[in-house]
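Exercise (ungraded).
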Amino acid sequence: MAEKKPRTYEGTSDIKIENPDMIICRCEEITLKEILQAISEGASSVNEVKRRTRAGMGLCQGRSCSRLVRKLIAEHTNQKFGSVQPGTVRPPVRPLPLKLLASLEEDSNG
Amino acid sequence: MANPDVVIIGGGIIGTCCAYYLEKEGLKVTLIERGKICSEASKSSQGHLFLWELPAINIKLAKASKKLFWQLNDQLDFDIELRNTGSMSISDSPESFDSLKKTIEDLRIAEVVCELLDANEFTKREPNVTPGIAGGAYFPEDGQLNPLLATIGIAQAAKKLGAEIKTNTLVTGIELSPDKTKVTGVQTGNGKISTKYVVNAAGAWSGQIGEMAGINIPVIPRKGNLIVVENVPDDFVNCKIIIASGYLDSLKVDNKVAVAANVQQTKEGNLLLGSSREFAGFNKEVNPEVISEIAKRCIRFFPSLANLHTIRSWAGLRPYSPDMLPIISDSPIEGFYVATGHEGVGITMGPVTGKLIAQMITEQKTELPVEKLSVNRFEKQS
């Protein structure tokens, strides 16, 4: 059995991303090509790639694609994986029906 | 490297538009941004091109700016989702409908096109709106764009024309001539830049930059919270911008926090729910009570929102000017210009602000009168 590298170590993962039409952000269907385009136009952080492409704006809020986007930024901007800032996390942490959000105040008071 | 003619401080919609129009006039621009391009109020916006915020001077600026956005649109590398949407205002009580009717009289004097709608007509056009409303109005001239793509696209266009954009660069001081009458340079965390002109486009932080030059700019942050909701079909709202008529009242400063329902659908299909105005210093944290109140008020008008999922909320700091007019102005310091204080209409007024600043610096006749927008108006009061 091949030796398995830990996923969180300081370095790029072994995943090969070569097909330009490969979907990187599944929620918003953003391809490798679109992300590389954003990086080539100057995006050098997860937030900047997101603002240009929508990668990470969808239902999962970048939980799936953020690592891949960081890896791509690191590889194409000569940064270390660990020095590419992950995107900003904001509430709610997972999708929440609006009626629950609307009742937040009463809950906290009662 | 050669010194720039102009240093612009701030990489939001105002700073990037100034950079674009100054480069168009043939000046060499360096834009300095503390973070990344489009990192503060511009990235926190709904992207509404709002053409009916009184007084009349704001409406003139907004109209001119919308026209410029359509011209700019062809010059950019990518689609910024600019479209003519119109907008609607909605009243939940006979009292607020009466107050909307009065506002509409003033708006018509200011040459705003609008159509008054009774409750039946309104809900016929917007079936997802609760039938319990009192009435509303339609404003066909408003528009919408993606504020992130617009700001980044305009920055990219300015860069193509020759502007240098320095991100992650903090301004630490403004250098003046020994007699303190002229600007001579800008000090940054990465060294000094000599220049003849400086444009302060630092939004909610423009007061601090003004202080460095010894100029009183009484702009303070006014926080807004927004909620983004999952994609919904295009017919959820037929008009893409629907705002409670109490919105205009929420602009007034009587309350520390004001909330008004504001439902907008982006071209991608998400709903952006707002809006709030809150004085909370430079605190950019989402206020849970405020977003809960926004959700509640939006559901009151759109009951079917209740079961849709919210995926994110955020807050940004608008640059609030005490008299509700932007500051687009030269200053007592020769070469020091100010472009700030747009509060909720910064995206709307970005291009016209850039154009006016470029016309002032190149000593052309400005296409709109700018006397009332002068920073000197605050000196006279004190």
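Further reading is listed at the end of the chapter. For now, observe: The two ends of chain A are 56 Å apart (CA to CA). Chain A has a mean pLDDT of 85.
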